[in-house]
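Session log. Operator J.P. requested a structure for one protein chain; no other inputs attached. Running the standard single-chain path with token output.
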Amino acid sequence: MSFASLGLSEEIVRAVSERGYTEPTPIQAQAIPAVLSGGDLLAGAQTGTGKTAGFTLPILHRLSDKSIKGPSEGRPPVRALILTPTRELAAQVEESVREYGKYLKLNSMVMFGGVNINPQIARLRSRVDILVATPGRLLDHIGQRTLNLSQVEILVLDEADRMLDMGFIRDIKKILALLPKKRQNLLFSATFSDEIKILADNLLDNPAMIEVARRNATAELISQKIYLVDREKKRDLLAHLIKQHDWHQVLVFTRTKHGANRLAEQLDKGGIPALAIHGNKSQSARTKALKEFKDGSLQVLVATDIAARGIDIIELPHVVNYELPNVPEDYVHRIGRTGRAGSEGEAISLVCVDEHKLLKDIERVTKRELPKEIVPGFEPDLNAKPEPILNGQNRGQRQGHGRNPLRGANGNQAQPRTGQKPATAGGNRGASHRSGGRHR
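Structure written below.
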């Protein structure tokens, strides 16, 4: 099967082939015709399945199709809106729109928080056919009346499960209320939780349904291994494994931003080039770290779950769970960064006595017992007693102001504002809608 056989225009097929893609992935083969038909779509697809092209290619085709008449009066409106949970994913999606649409007369734009809003306001004064945005910054523009969504023809919710995890449901409802009733809706999610089903029921009209990966299934091409180790020896074991096996492009997951910073600093001091990426980092720092990691000049990237969404490296060889996630489904998301596009990948987890229950939960969800190994010199103390993992951290390392912190979306604490639910740690949500609030 070729991309041309799916009904895409010659200009789009040429751009796709120039990026080295000749055959569509299973999600693309099913999603592209469904989107071209003009109907709503509910798609279950894990990261690394090619889902971005699954919706960007047919959207480009539909918006450039002269037989589908668009608005003709006034300033050209935003015709397609793609919502993503994180800045990195937004930038990645918009880059795909530009690359695949380079032979078309369509303009795209990305908007997210963490950067100055004024250049975005200036950009909105010119033509923007396809807008890729994070919810918080989009609502900033709505509040400043710099953006009109009244003529959107196609809406995409990408990684909808993660948007709900990050507490964006209220923002999404506000945005939906601003869109025309008659439009095409595309919802992509790695998992179909009850919340996703409720959202889909309220959003989609008689949708086509596609699911290309079993729920919570882990890729067969990913080699998974557990190293049992004491919590105090994890950093030394990680450094040992990286040096002994000469690993490069190692994506390491921690539960907290503070933990990511500390681990990256310690690895770097030990002679292993490492940087941390998370929501508290400036956008320029995040972009720089990602660029160096992708081009191979940075050996290790330490990330929190949310910051890692949008990291798209075709042949990422190694993923390490320095700390197991509190939610077992997040393990599937994490290791899904490797073993993509037919290439093999390795997923390593360093597990201490505090995390044995989390490991059992992961094995229950993935329906497989993971192989366990002990490295000589790093044998765990069999008499060690587990300590509770409080607020995403071991050994009671709680930050806060003398009261119980409320856990945010990635295990970091978040203090509630008066009369509001706790803020979630979301990367692109630095502040909420306060008077004169910070740009997100």
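Operator note: Residues 4-211 form a domain with the Rossmann fold fold (CATH 3.40.50.300).
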